[in-house]
């Protein structure tokens, strides 16, 4: 009876570790795809500026903001690994603000939509402000972290 309970406890402890390794592997693969798309955007910049004459500024600005979205996602994945498997919420806010600015630049034909996008940006900035004034209360040590308590 005790052997089965010990085996059960071992398997219960191994499941989160295996899932964490799987998640890490998938995030690394995703970061390679995002890096490829980031390089592809640089090629698009070259085509817009040099081959097309650089006359379509709207397309160029939209591509710059998509470039920053890829960049922010890659940065968020790097921070995930640097901060002990934790996604900082502020990076999601950065991505949301950048996406809304891109929508305003690309789709600004309807004034009501532009106003709504602007209000969304204001809400995201207020959330960012609230996050910055809120004290950080994270556990010091987690089961997959090798940091010692008190460091």
How would you explain this protein's 3D organization?
With 151 residues, this protein is mainly α. The chain has one domain. Helices cover 77% and strands 0% of the residues. The chain is built from four helices and no strands. It has helices at 2-51, 57-82, 89-106, 111-133. The radius of gyration is 22 Å and the shape is flat. The model has no long low-confidence stretch (mean pLDDT 83).
Write the layout of secondary structure elements.
Elements: H1 2-51, H2 57-82, H3 89-106, H4 111-133
Structural class: mainly alpha
Q: The biggest beta sheet, please?
A: none
Uncertain segments are none
Instruction: Please give the count of helices.
Output: 4
Task: Please trace the helix and strand order, writing H or E for each element.
Answer: HHHH
What is the global morphology? flat
What is the beta-strand fraction? under 5%
Number of domains: 1
The radius of gyration computed from the alpha-carbon positions, rounded to a whole number of angstroms, is: 22 Å
Q: Separation of termini? A: 40 Å
* Strand segment tally: 0
Mean pLDDT: 83
- Please estimate the helix content: over 70%
Membrane topology: Multi-pass membrane protein
Family: Belongs to the PsiE family.
Protein name: Protein PsiE
Pfam families: PsiE
């Amino acid at each position: 009876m005790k052997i089965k309970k010990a085996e059960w406890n071992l398997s219960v402890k191994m499941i989160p570790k295996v899932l964490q390794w799987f998640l890490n592997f998938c995030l690394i693969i995703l970061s390679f795809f995002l890096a490829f798309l980031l390089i592809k955007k640089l090629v698009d910049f070259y085509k817009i500026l040099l081959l097309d004459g650089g006359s379509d500024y709207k397309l160029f600005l939209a591509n710059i903001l998509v470039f920053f979205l890829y960049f922010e996602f890659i940065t968020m994945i790097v921070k995930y690994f640097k901060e002990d498997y934790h996604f900082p919420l502020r990076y999601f806010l950065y991505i949301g603000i950048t996406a809304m600015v891109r929508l305003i630049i690309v789709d600004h034909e309807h004034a009501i939509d532009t106003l709504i996008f602007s209000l969304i940006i204001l809400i995201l900035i207020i959330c960012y402000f609230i996050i910055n004034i809120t004290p950080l209360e994270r556990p010091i040590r987690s089961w997959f972290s090798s940091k010692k308590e008190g460091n």
